[in-house]
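hey so u asked for the seq, here:
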Amino acid sequence: MSGIDFFQVVLSSSIIASIFTAVVSLKLKNLDYKNEYSKKILDKRLKAYDCIENQIALMKTMVVNFDSNGYYLVFDDKERNSTKIQQNFFNTMKNSIWINKKTVLLMEELSDLLAEILKKKNNENEILLNICKETYELLIQLTDELENSVRKDLLNLHNLKKFAKQNFY
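ran it, structure tokens below
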């Protein structure tokens, strides 16, 4: 092998190695970008589900009145707790784009029930106990369904492809 042939082999090998290195580097950067993007999406989803967890806790909180009767915080007007719960629903729904569609529908149903309770309390001046009796079972059912839906969602929170398929038509 002559010097020129050897030089051509070394030069072509260097060019091929450089091209290979550039392609691998681009692929790795693209993969790194996708991973960082997925982390940001996952962080947003975690924040949204944290809001839901807070909402569930508020909906399940019981208080005791002067007669030692327990009832849910949503029915308590002393501290305007029902308004706080409603505001928390708003903050939770702000992040609904990051939440599974079924869970969002349950939150909307629970929010509608809360609005109905507040309307009865404010407009009809019904006795608190009657409102509690009317809506207690549905409130418990919807809160439990929401909690179960959140648990199920959290198992697949990392699976962004599955999330996208469930939330888009």
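Helices lie at 3-60, 81-94, 101-123, 128-155, 160-167. The longest strand covers residues 62-64.
lmk if thats what u needed
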